[in-house]
Amino acid sequence: MAYLSLKDVNKIYPNGFHAVHNFNLDIEQGEFIVFVGPSGCGKSTTLRMIAGLENISKGDFFINGKRANEIGPREREVAMVFQSYALYPHMSVYDNMAFGLSLQGVDEDVIEKRVSETARILGLTDYLDRKPRALSGGQRQRVAVGRAIIRKVGIFLMDEPLSNLDAKQRVTMRSEITDIHRKVGATTIYVTHDQTEAMTMADRIVVMKDGYIQQVGSPYELYFKPVNMFVAGFIGEPPMNFITSEVKDGKVQIGKAELALEKILDKENYDNGKSLVVGYRPEAIVLGAKENSVVVKAIVELTELLGDNTNVYVDIDGVKSILKVDPHDTPEMDTEVEFSIPYDSIYLFDKETENVIENKLRQL
User: Any idea what DSSP says for residue 237?
Assistant: First the structure.
């Protein structure tokens, strides 16, 4: 296992494009860290700098306390799993997994033992004689993971390894990779644009946007205590609802409903005319009028039955929102629905900075 540290790391390309800005992160031994964010946010570039495939323009990168900026990829003792399986089509599963060890001159007996052990962990024992074309997408990805973990290095880097799989295979592979991490114990950095993968797999998540870190925390922290609108809107499915309103006499409007700021904020009075953004998660609402809540009325525009819940798309005086309700309580289309947002589930953001304003009722 290895511990890593990135100090003020920047990536600036020759054309002047600044891909990663002042990236700071300490990664503990054996942690499973996930970089998540939209395409082009700098997450894969950061992973490639850690791997040694990209030069660091400014800043310092340390492996086990030793500065590694100028150390080559091979000497960093990292193993990578890429988006494409990159398997040798003419080789069997056994030979694909053994290839790297053979190049290192490892004894055949040791190679056979390691391949057998790795295949057992990955459930590939019965497929060692097959060629990649005879495997499913999930099986090929397991071979790619096996080729990485067989080297027994301290750092695993995974760049969107599940993006080529179908939805069912992705769910299966998520749990398998998490289980492999527990068994192997290596420090793992995983890149994805899929927030569900991040939430279900990570010890800690690094949320990125436009080359900047937005927030670092556990899945629980990012879901319940986002620091800004971007994190609040990126983490969670469906995303958080946002409604902009101006303060008037210590209140903001959610449609025709009024929210008294003193109910949820320590600071009771905000200047009239100040723009705030009210946020609430679709799953936080309760149908009907409830105590200790703001009660909102809306028009139902569309419903999506998903089995365990229904997404209800509503119009609140011209503002679109999504509600998540029990499928047995799905309202009819084009009808008015009344729902409550508990005070302790409401988020307020400063419209100008987009930073969160702490809700005094939210205890974690």
Answer: S
Classify domain 4-233 at the CATH superfamily level.
P-loop containing nucleotide triphosphate hydrolases (3.40.50.300)
Question: Three-state DSSP class for 173?
Answer: helix
Is 257 a residue whose pLDDT tops 80?
yes
What are 174's two structure tokens? Answer: 């998520």
* SS3 letters across 84-115: CCCCCCCCCHHHHHHHHHHHCCCCHHHHHHHH
Q: pTM here?
A: 0.90
CA distance 31 to 186: 8
Helix (H, G, I), strand (E, B), or coil: what is residue 211? coil
Q: How far is CA 306 from the centre of its chain?
A: 22
Q: Is the peptide bond before 238 cis (omega within 30 degrees of 0)?
A: yes
Helix axes 108-122, 137-149, angle to 10 degrees: 130
Q: What percentage of residues in the chain have a pLDDT greater than 70?
A: 99
Each domain of the chain, given as residue ranges in start order, spans 4-233, 240-357
CA–CA dist 115, 151 (Å, integer):
10
Binning pLDDT at 50, 70 and 90, where does residue 171 land? confident
Tokens of 161: 């390894």
Superfamily grouping for domain 240-357? Nucleic acid-binding proteins (2.40.50.140)
The per-residue pLDDT for range 16-52, each reduced to its tens digit, is 999 999 999 999 999 999 999 999 999 999 999 999 9
Q: What is the mean pLDDT of residues 339-347?
A: 97
pLDDT at 85 over 80: no
Q: Residue 194: name the closest of 2, 20, 36 by CA.
A: 36
Question: Which single residue is written with the structure tokens 């105590």?
Answer: 291
Q: Do domains 4-233 and 240-357 have the same CATH topology?
A: no
**Residue with the two structure tokens 């800005």:** 21
